[in-house]
Amino acid sequence: MKATRFEFRFRFLIHGLLYLVSFVMPWNKWLHLDTVRTWQWLASLLSRAGVLGFSSATLLVLVVGICFALAAALLRTWGSAYLGHGVVHDSAMHGDRVVAAGPYRYMRNPLYLGTFLHTCSLALLTMPSGALFMLVTIGLLQVRLIGAEESFLTQQLGDAYREYCMRVPRLVPALRPRTEASGVRPEWGWATLSEIYIWGVAISYGALGWMYNAVLILQGVLVSLGVSMVVRSLLQRPKKTA
C-alpha cells in the first residue's frame, strides 16, 4: 500500500485538510453524534468506571495530551536534525544515501511516528467521531507514505537499504541502536525552526491546557501554524549571490 507521487508531493496539504475535516465534522450536523470533546469524553469514561474522579481524570488526559505533543516535537526535531530540513519538507523524495544516525539507528521512520503522536494530541481537542476520523485517516496516510518512501529507497539504494531495513524496525523504536552510526552531523537550529509548528502545539498544550479550555489550545495551534508558515517561507527563500 503505497502513496502516489501526488500524495507525497502534497502530503502537508493533505494532512491539513484531514485535520480540518476532523474538527469541522460535517457529518455531525445531520447525525448529531457528539456534544463533548474527546478530552471530556475520555475523562467521563474514567470517572464513570470508578478509576478516578472527573477532575483527576481530566488532569490525567491533559497530561497525556502534553506528553503526546512533547514527544512528537522531540522526535520530529531529532529526525529533522539528522535528515536535514530541506529533505524533510521537500516535495520530492531523496535517496542518495542511507541515514543511519540519531533516531534512524533505532527506527526507520521517526518523522512519521512523530506526526502520528502529534495527531493523537490534536485528537483530544476534537469530538470523538472527529478524533476517530483523524486517527484512522492520518494513520492510513502515514502507512501509505512510508510504503512509497521505502519502495523508492529500495530502488535507489538497493542492498544497502535492504540490509538497513533488516536491522532497524520500521516504527516501534528499538531499545538499543541497531546499526553503526554514520557520519551525519545534526543541524539542531535549522531542525527546530523547521518544526516550529509542532513545538508551538506542545507549548500551547503545556501553557494553556491548565485552563481546561480546548478552544484556547486550538487558538495556540492556529497561531503556531501561522508562525510556521512564515518561518518556512523564510527557510525556503533562495540565498542571494554576490
Detailed description of the structure:
- The chain is mainly alpha-helical and 242 residues long.
- It has one domain.
- Helices cover 67% and strands 0% of the residues.
- Helix 5 (54-83) runs antiparallel to helix 7 (110-123), helix 5 runs antiparallel to helix 11 (196-208) and helix 11 (196-208) packs antiparallel against helix 12 (214-235).
- The N and C termini lie far apart (47 Å).
Question: How are helices and strands ordered from N to C?
Answer: HHHHHHHHHHHH
Distance between the first and last residues' Cα:
47 Å
Structural Rg: 19 Å
State the total count of DSSP E strands. Answer: 0
In brief:
The protein is an all-alpha fold and 242 residues long. Helix content is 67%, strand content 0%.
List the helices and strands and how they pair.
Elements: H1 5-9, H2 11-24, H3 28-31, H4 38-48, H5 54-83, H6 85-88, H7 110-123, H8 128-157, H9 159-167, H10 188-194, H11 196-208, H12 214-235
Name the descriptors.
242 residues, 67% helix, mainly alpha
